[in-house]
Amino acid sequence: MSTQRHFRVWRGDDEGGELTDFTVEVNEGEVVLDVIHRLQATQAPDLAVRWNCKAGKCGSCSAEINGRPRLLCMTRMNLFGDDETITVTPVRTFPVIRDLVTDVSYNYDKARAMPAFAPPSDLEPGEYRMQQVDVERSQEFRKCIECFLCQNTCHVVRDHEENKPDFSGPRMFIRAAELDMHPLDERDDRKELAQAEQGLGYCNITKCCTEVCPEHIKITDNAIIPMKERVVDRKYDPVTWLGRKIFRR
Ligand code: SF4
Ligand code: F3S
Ligand code: FES
């Protein structure tokens, strides 16, 4: 069964824009991305939208739907009431290129700044066998599809451009936590780096990042809070402090 639905879609570029109204056909079982594609096919051929897999796995189609950060391809139309207007806007934290497409290079800059995995240099291929328990500990973080919805949602940068240089964001904190848990990573200062150079201290555990993660990664509880706790332990525990002084760790 098909119905006519009311959509408002933000159209514009880095110089400004506005919400444009559309009435568009919607069929049973469709997701918001299907409707955006129908708009492109029938009414707005130049409407810019980024997408790739249409399966919730490439992380390209992030946008805000009725103000909530979501993947366009994983948001079913039956989530909304029949008479509800559906407003689709680009993610707010990153600069608009055109329509629903934003420049997410902030995230890649932060990823490049992250010190890479550092295994022992003399380890030969096949020489070390990962224990299942070590695989499982970081498995959750490896589900990340890099949609950057968590980065977009975090209030530290959402309306505070000035914090971006000092704050790497929740996606980078789960990467730091993952590397910190890796038995072969020789850097023992991942938590301190997160605190000193990636802005872990800016996070006040609001958990908004966790709420919007389409992979349901427990970003705050399983990555951020344990790293914060261990930074505090290392800093204030007198035995740890003395050990670090003696062994210069
Ligand atoms: Fe997206 Fe979740 Fe990865 Fe953040 S942690 S980039 S919300 S999948
Ligand atoms: Fe931001 Fe998530 Fe912390 S939303 S403040 S990184 S808990
Ligand atoms: Fe790939 Fe939506 S198109 S996650």
TrEMBL record:
<dbReference type="InterPro" id="IPR004489">
    <property type="entry name" value="Succ_DH/fum_Rdtase_Fe-S"/>
</dbReference>
<dbReference type="InterPro" id="IPR025192">
    <property type="entry name" value="Succ_DH/fum_Rdtase_N"/>
</dbReference>
<keyword id="KW-0479">Metal-binding</keyword>
<dbReference type="GO" id="GO:0046872">
    <property type="term" value="F:metal ion binding"/>
</dbReference>
<keyword id="KW-0560">Oxidoreductase</keyword>
<dbReference type="GO" id="GO:0009055">
    <property type="term" value="F:electron transfer activity"/>
</dbReference>
<dbReference type="GO" id="GO:0005886">
    <property type="term" value="C:plasma membrane"/>
</dbReference>
<keyword id="KW-0004">4Fe-4S</keyword>
<dbReference type="GO" id="GO:0022904">
    <property type="term" value="P:respiratory electron transport chain"/>
</dbReference>
<dbReference type="Pfam" id="PF13085">
    <property type="entry name" value="Fer2_3"/>
</dbReference>
<feature type="domain" description="2Fe-2S ferredoxin-type">
    <location>
        <begin position="5"/>
        <end position="92"/>
    </location>
</feature>
<dbReference type="GO" id="GO:0051537">
    <property type="term" value="F:2 iron, 2 sulfur cluster binding"/>
</dbReference>
<keyword id="KW-0001">2Fe-2S</keyword>
<keyword id="KW-0408">Iron</keyword>
<dbReference type="InterPro" id="IPR006058">
    <property type="entry name" value="2Fe2S_fd_BS"/>
</dbReference>
<dbReference type="GO" id="GO:0051539">
    <property type="term" value="F:4 iron, 4 sulfur cluster binding"/>
</dbReference>
<dbReference type="InterPro" id="IPR036010">
    <property type="entry name" value="2Fe-2S_ferredoxin-like_sf"/>
</dbReference>
<protein>
    <submittedName>
        <fullName>Succinate dehydrogenase and fumarate reductase iron-sulfur protein</fullName>
    </submittedName>
</protein>
<dbReference type="Pfam" id="PF13183">
    <property type="entry name" value="Fer4_8"/>
</dbReference>
<comment type="pathway">
    <text>Carbohydrate metabolism; tricarboxylic acid cycle.</text>
</comment>
<dbReference type="InterPro" id="IPR001041">
    <property type="entry name" value="2Fe-2S_ferredoxin-type"/>
</dbReference>
<dbReference type="GO" id="GO:0006099">
    <property type="term" value="P:tricarboxylic acid cycle"/>
</dbReference>
<dbReference type="InterPro" id="IPR050573">
    <property type="entry name" value="SDH/FRD_Iron-Sulfur"/>
</dbReference>
<dbReference type="InterPro" id="IPR012675">
    <property type="entry name" value="Beta-grasp_dom_sf"/>
</dbReference>
<keyword id="KW-0411">Iron-sulfur</keyword>
<comment type="similarity">
    <text>Belongs to the succinate dehydrogenase/fumarate reductase iron-sulfur protein family.</text>
</comment>
<dbReference type="GO" id="GO:0016491">
    <property type="term" value="F:oxidoreductase activity"/>
</dbReference>
<dbReference type="InterPro" id="IPR017896">
    <property type="entry name" value="4Fe4S_Fe-S-bd"/>
</dbReference>
<dbReference type="InterPro" id="IPR009051">
    <property type="entry name" value="Helical_ferredxn"/>
</dbReference>
